[in-house]
Amino acid sequence: MKREEILERLKGVMEEAATEPIDWSKAEESTPLAGLGFDSLAILDVLYGVEQEFEIEVDAEEVADLETLGELLSALEERIEP
Amino acid sequence: MSSGRRVGITGIGLVTALGLEEEEIWGALMAGRTGIAAVTGFDVSKLPCGVAAQVENTALEREVAALGRLPGDRTTDMALIAAGRALTQAGLRDDDARRGAGTLLGTGMGPAHTFFEAYESYYAKGVKGLRPTTVPRAMYNALSAQVSMVFGLTGPNYVVVSACASATNALGDGFRRIRDGHLDLALCGGAESFVNPLFFGVWNRLGVLSKERDPARACRSFDGSRDGTVLGEGAAVLVLEDLDRARGRGARVRGEILGYGESSDAGHLTRPSVEGQCVAMRQALASAGVEPADLAYVNAHGTATPSNDAAECASLREVLGGEADRIPVGSTKPFFGHTLGASGAIETALTLASLERGMVPGNRTLEGRDTQCAVRLVGREPEPITGSLAMKNSFGFGGGNAVLIIHRWES
């Protein structure tokens, strides 16, 4: 799956997990997830959402150090079947 | 009479099936228009009761967006909306003076939609299907926690759970804390939203809901043909404030809580006790330092179940004595439905509005009174009242009784 497609579907997942509207116009790959309004609790919901959306398993500990949108995308690329 | 500081009401926020704006809600009350309608969102055709008072979805979406948030749990969202509107009316929304406020909210069923979604996910997909943040979303104190966090309120926050008496207990608790000097400011009220297949289903199974399919006739409080209550969703938050502090900052004081009484029946789990209700009412009157002769109105618990209305009228006759022939008694549940843990707050707010306007809503579904309900009932139409004091009753499953004495502000 192409990175762009993963990003589009990831945006839907993140919007489900968010408690405040996300300003995607300000989001780049280097944007910290915290800057998009995701604290440690909300990140758990994002990981849950990507598991449901992409039918993969994500170990929360393995992705604990992810900080930016780009790092999350890369982690997903590694786990999603091409 | 209890000594201590006077407790003013400086802001009210409402979320109801009749709307969110007080003027709009009052217009519906005066016109006899109900928020009870056929349940939408899932199939109720096979249930004994198919009506409820539901809040309009577009109004909720708009208000949640106005808070800069995305929809979360529906009950929690209602609490947030009501709290925000109450703070705005009190002139405290963006004022640092709000910071130390306590948040004491009642609920009977808590974040019921989040629970229902969790059950559905669990039975479909197992543990892996459960949203990781289910705990902080579904915990009952999410209501008060979110209000505290969103509005930056650093006083104590917790939720009172005592079924239909919850919000009245929360208001009474807030009243006592301010009266006794533990808090200067408190957001008190309740929120309830649970009209989904599971929670509406279990209430149907209990057999206390009206089987009347015509929404206009369901929930016939005090009527001889009443056959049960109708549920509703909604929220109300009142800003309670030390009166001297409120006046000092130039706040508009709408009224006061003058007294509060509470008791338990220690009897049946769902059937009311006259004795227990009388204890709470007498305690409320005594703590306010008022007599039945001082009351202009009683906003009853008035659920329209055969047992509640008869017991409540017997209790009122016992406590009010001869004044029970004079004091108009009304139930507003035929308008808002029985909003359980929010009912005490929604109904206290409308009781204060009634005192302010010198009018009380009618017992809109009263067709022929039950002879057991031998008190002076408001008729089907709104009536004028004179006087500045009212009593608000709430009697909950579990035998909890909570009663407030409300005073209209008179400068």
List the defining traits of the structure above:
heterodimer, A: 82 residues, mainly alpha, Non-ribosomal Peptide Synthetase Peptidyl Carrier Protein, Chain A, globular, B: 411 residues, alpha/beta, Peroxisomal Thiolase, Chain A, domain 1, ten-stranded mixed beta sheet, two-stranded antiparallel sheet, 13 helices
What would you note in describing this structure?
The complex is a heterodimer of chains A (82) and B (411). Chain A is mostly helical and 82 residues long. Chain A has one domain: ACP-like (Non-ribosomal Peptide Synthetase Peptidyl Carrier Protein, Chain A, Orthogonal Bundle). Chain A contains three helices and no strands. The longest helix of chain A is centred in the N-terminal third of the chain and has 15 residues. The radius of gyration of chain A is 11 Å and the shape is globular. The termini of chain A are close together. The mean pLDDT of chain A is 90. Chain B has 411 residues and is α/β, with parallel strands linked by helices. Chain B has two domains: 242 residues, Peroxisomal Thiolase, Chain A, domain 1 (3-Layer(aba) Sandwich); 151 residues, 3-Layer(aba) Sandwich (Peroxisomal Thiolase, Chain A, domain 1). Chain B has 13 helices and 14 strands. In chain B, the strands form three sheets. Chain B has a ten-stranded mixed beta sheet, with helices on both faces. A two-stranded antiparallel sheet of chain B has the order 2-3. A two-stranded antiparallel ribbon of chain B has the order 11-12. In chain B, helix 3 packs across helix 6, helix 7 packs across helix 13 and helix 10 crosses helix 11. The relative contact order of chain B is 0.18. The model of chain B has no long low-confidence stretch (mean pLDDT 96). At the A-B interface, helix 2 of A face loops of B.
